Amino acid sequence: MLIIADSRMPLAAKDSLSGLGEVLWLEPQPCVYPAIAAHPDIYLCRHKHQLIASPDIPVHWSARIRSAGIALSFGQQRLGEKYPQTAGYNAVFAGDLLIHNLKVSDPMLLSLASDTIHVKQAYTRCNLLALNNTHMITSDRGIEKTLLRHGKNVLFVEPKQIRLAQHTHGFFGGACGLLGTNLVVCGNISTLGESEALHDFAHSCGFTLLSLFDGPLTDVGSMLFFTGGD
Asked: Using an 8 Å Cβ cutoff, are 196 and 224 in contact?
């Protein structure tokens, strides 16, 4: 298994994550602003068993990803220091459904989608975790409203409870990743006001919550897990 994660996540979380499998620790890159400079969801977008990457990622990242047997393709858009140049790959795929601000989506993502949902929040993956094609968790009221209108089951988690360095708060999606039937969280779910609702929502989809450390949820730009079955 290969895990892709921010090298700057809390030390206790890093130790726990390293115990789950081999980790490609992303080091900060100068092409985007510091708070998100090592966030996987800024550079990489997952579509089923493959990754779409910004052409800005270092060669050793792409080499390590491919050596793990993961299909990797490059998008067209280069990243930049300011929005919207930071958001072209920060999208969510639920199967072949692409959820993103389609005005900033890299063309490669659009080409892979058989259906799309446009949302105003271009940092979509930061704010949205899709447990499956119908059940989703978000920290953005606009995303929540749009997805409900499209018939999705949505749980809202208040973002002010989630830490992000150099910002007033982070977002729930950025604190999470999916490993099989585990919803892996960088922090202790019990610190959330929605803790009970989150447990119930995850369990209804067959997921178990796995906290990486005993502290407030921390936005680390998501975590990507690729097992041998991917």
From this structure: no
95 is written with which tokens?
């199967």
Beta strands in the chain (DSSP E): 2-6, 22-26, 44-47, 50-53, 71-74, 92-94, 97-100, 115-118, 128-130, 135-138, 153-156, 176-179, 182-185, 208-211, 224-226
Tell me the pLDDT tens digit for each residue of 102-153. Answer: 999 999 999 999 999 999 999 999 999 999 999 999 999 999 999 999 999 9
Q: Which residues sit opposite 177 in a β-bridge?
A: 184
DSSP secondary structure string, 108-161? HHHHH-SEEEE-S-S-HHHHEEESSSSEEEES-HHHHHHHHHTT-EEEE--GGG
Q: Rounded distance, CA 128 to CA 87, Å?
A: 14
Q: What is the pLDDT of residues 154-196, one digit of tens each?
A: 999 999 999 998 899 999 999 999 999 999 999 999 999 999 9
Query: pTM here?
Result: 0.97
Measured CA to CA, the distance from residue 99 to residue 147 in angstroms comes to 9
Could you tell me the domains of the chain? 2-226 (3.75.10)
* Cα dist from 133 to 92, 140, 182, whole Å: 11, 18, 16
- Cβ-contact 148, 178 below 8 angstroms: no
Q: Computed from CA positions of residues 146, 148, 149, 151, in that sequence, does the dihedral angle turn out positive or negative?
A: positive
Half-sphere exposure in the Cβ direction for 12 (13 Å, CA): 12
Distance CA 28, CA 26 (A): 7
β-strands 153-156, 135-138: how paired?
parallel
